[in-house]
Write a structure and sequence with these properties.
Two copies of one chain form a homodimer.
Chain A: H1 2-26, H2 28-33, E1 49-54, H3 58-68, E2 73-79, H4 83-95, E3 102-104, H5 110-117, E4 122-125, H6 129-141, E5 146-149, H7 157-170, E6 173-176, H8 184-194, E7 201-209, H9 213-216, H10 244-250, H11 258-267, E8 276-283, H12 288-297, E9 313-320, E10 325-331, E11 343-346, E12 349-352, E13 357-360, E14 370-371, H13 372-378, H14 382-393, H15 399-412, H16 421-439, E15 445-446
Parallel strand pairs in A: 1-2, 1-4, 2-3, 4-5, 5-6, 7-10
Antiparallel strand pairs in A: 7-11, 8-9, 8-15, 9-10, 11-12, 12-13, 13-14
Helix pairs in contact in A: 3-4, 3-15, 6-7, 7-16, 8-13, 11-16, 14-15
């Protein structure tokens, strides 16, 4: 019975966690009183929206390009520790013929200095994952009214709560910059779901199925590993190989869930009349990264001894309070074409992203798939109808442009952000909860309610038709 | 702590079940001694293989057609309670210009009478699910050397053990008639996996995603429900609507897992060096059957008050002892085109059934899918190469013909069956285990080891190249 006793103790620990959550829940009324009103912007001298950047790497270049095209904004200051990134940024501004902003460069905490000295309407944070929450919290506490943070927003349960609590206490609006929520097909699916074409929703799938092996290692010159070159991670590398790879060494769970779960969260109105209740996660053995090192660097490569904790394919099943289920996949160490693997299924129809097929009862031919593109063309979301041309010109499929447009429209109108701290927390929480589940072979783990009951009455807000 | 105590008691109950299994495991050596040698056939007067049928409904017509084409077999007797099925069978024999066999018709246990009076080399059982195990056990105990039972083989854990224990005690060979194991693409995938094209296997998906609403109800005349006609189940209906629908009323789990898990079991060598260790299952709410009744029979239809237990979409995640994971789906109450949703993924490649795409590292163009058909054409399994032409002429894609050929080749040569009692038990066990998991929100449940340790040394046997 030793095993059972151990299981029981583990279970008791979780029950304890559950009780803590419930306590927060019952004190929800009290907690509501501590929620600050939305922080308003102070008008700038120029009348423009003052933008700051923490982190200026590859990801930020997209954001620079999009924000620089908004005539009513000015990027007043940027902060980074990396000369490589700052030089890349200088090139971007040069190409766009824009004035290079003030640069904060120094120690790892230099961003605190920037936040103290400058005044911003919005801070964009595109830094390594482990810095997302400290930087977001610092920006909100410094009084910045809007903070946009890259994905995943948070790595641990404490970090999830930190985002929520700080946003509630300061009144600053925290947006999770989940660009896939703005993908054209994903938004058309949202529109179809809202118009009832899929009937009552039942089941969704999603994931991040992206062969990142050549991103997790490089030679410090090329972003993506080139066969025959040196295989490095950490300080000798560039881009995500500097830091992301270490999450594969130290963690085993769905460490990057939001590209998948963000769209699903919107389809299922998570935090807006619905919420995640529990999950179970399982993982395969870890083979891909070790094999990649041996295949490219040889069996004697110094990395060949690394024990990568991250299982190659992590799958997570989630229950919602409204009786839907979700499957989320994380698959970044295996050879495969890219996919986010969406599926959206209800009592009257279903969409498969893989294969791009769609079926609506009574409209599709019985037992035959339609091409999803034919449907999505008819149900193009109004954000894409309005901004689609500009977005397409902005490159990268345009979803980043639409996302930034949606965020900046909220800033212009002093509205809440489209994807807020509760979305950031609920979506990101999958990482820590899946690690907990996997560490115990796939046990069922409860989700906390980051809204403390507010999900019951919150009305859908993201991407309502304009 | 009341909830925790209750959970603990539930958990203790499962731990108890686990201990019982372990006891069987530790007594494996003792149990080995009770395993009878394989039951050999007694030659018939005619020299032909003597075949008996229990159950002669729609499914059996396929089997009649295939077996009647084997010149060295004779169907000596058949048994059913249904005049409808027996008449249908008479027509089949007439069309094929074959002599109609002796008929046993009487009470529900008339098959026992047939088993007592006739001598068979093989019995084929295609009856309602709840009769599979009693009939299989009776046939084995009656000394029939080969028993083929339709899918799923068993509904409860006790039934799974009954199949294993009876086969071991009698020496009779029990084959689970899982035809999808013989599907041409599934077998090509098996060949590719065995030849190492996918590398070390990591993750598989499969399921039974088949809109059966019009099969679960009909008017007693047409097998598939015709809109505008009467909506019946039970004695007034025909085909599966007579009995299958009641499993949707009374059970909530993956009640039909083997079309998916059979092929996956073969790919991953389950029971042959590998085994399932644990699962977690979740389900959506139940909407589809109620909606179908109201949509077609009106809100006042007598069935509109039925509380269907079966969630519309059931998903199950499974761990294996070798560190692979599997996702199995059961989806029979929703409008959708048919799919078994296979995925087969390893360290060097991946096949998606949905979309029919395949990728092999170093051979496919980087980050681009190939058409799976192009690969499967090159890796056609030798059973299909040899019997493919005859199979295609037999109709229904030919997999039933290949399956029967494989079973009858084993009978001809007095060999063990290709898919045996351990396969039947391990695959079918998903039903009962998923019901247990779902009843508690998705908790992790352990698989018993039906082989009692024999899986460690058993060598792959199914469909070795000929």
């Amino acid at each position: 019975m030793t095993t059972t006793r151990r299981d029981f103790l583990k279970k008791a620990a979780f029950a304890g966690a559950g009780i803590a959550t419930t306590t927060l829940g019952t004190n929800a009324a009290e907690k509501q009183n501590t929620i600050a009103p939305q922080k308003k912007r102070t008008p700038s001298k120029s009348g423009k929206i003052r933008v700051g950047f923490i982190g200026t790497g590859f990801r930020s270049q997209e954001h620079f390009n999009n924000i620089l095209s908004f005539p009513d904004t000015e990027i007043v200051a940027i902060c980074d520790v990396s000369d490589f990134s700052l030089n890349m940024t200088k090139e971007t501004f040069k190409k766009r013929e824009k004035e290079f902003p003030k640069v904060y460069k120094g120690g790892e905490l230099e961003y605190e200095n920037m936040l103290k000295k400058e005044e911003f309407d919005v801070i964009i944070i595109s830094s390594p994952w482990e810095w997302h929450v400290p930087m977001s919290v610092a920006a909100m506490k410094a009084g910045v009214p809007y903070v946009g943070v890259e994905v995943s927003a948070a790595n641990t349960m404490k970090e999830c709560w930190d985002l929520v609590n700080t946003s509630e206490e300061t009144g600053s609006q925290l947006m999770i910059l989940e660009n896939v929520c703005y993908r054209r097909d994903v938004m058309a699916a949202l529109k179809m779901a809202r118009e009832g074409l899929f009937g009552e929703l039942l089941h969704c799938r999603c994931g991040y199925e992206h062969d990142l092996r050549a991103v997790k290692f490089n030679d410090g010159k090329s972003y993506s590993y080139v066969p025959g070159t040196d295989l490095k991670m950490g300080p000798g590398a560039i881009g995500e190989a500097v830091w992301r790879t270490f999450h594969s060494i130290n963690r085993n769970g769905d460490i990057y869930p939001t590209h998948g779960i963000g769209p699903v969260g919107n389809w299922l109105n998570i935090n807006y009349g619905n919420r995640f209740t529990s999950l179970s996660s399982m993982t395969t053995k870890s083979r891909g990264l070790h094999k990649f090192i041996v295949d490219n660097g040889g069996a004697n490569h110094p990395y060949a001894n690394i024990d990568f904790k991250l299982g190659d394919i992590v799958t997570t099943m989630i229950n919602t309070v409204k009786g839907e289920t979700i499957i989320v996949t994380h698959d970044t160490n295996s050879p495969r074409p890219y996919s986010l693997g969406f599926r959206l299924q209800g009592t009257e129809g279903v969409w498969y992203n893989d294969g791009d097929t769609l079926y609506i009862e009574g409209q599709s031919k019985p037992h035959q798939w339609d091409k999803s593109g034919d449907w999505f063309g008819k149900y193009d979301h109004s954000l894409w109808k309005k901004y689609g041309d500009e977005a397409q010109n902005a490159g990268h499929g345009g979803m980043d442009y639409i996302m930034m447009t949606d965020l900046f429209n909220a800033i212009r109108e002093n509205r809440p952000v489209p994807l807020d701290c509760y979305d950031a927390a609920a979506w990101s929480a999958i990482s820590a909860l899946s690690e907990e589940s996997i560490a115990q072979g796939g046990i069922l783990v409860d989700f906390p309610d980051f809204t403390c009951g507010k999900w019951i009455n919150r009305k859908p807000y993201f991407a309502m038709e304009i």
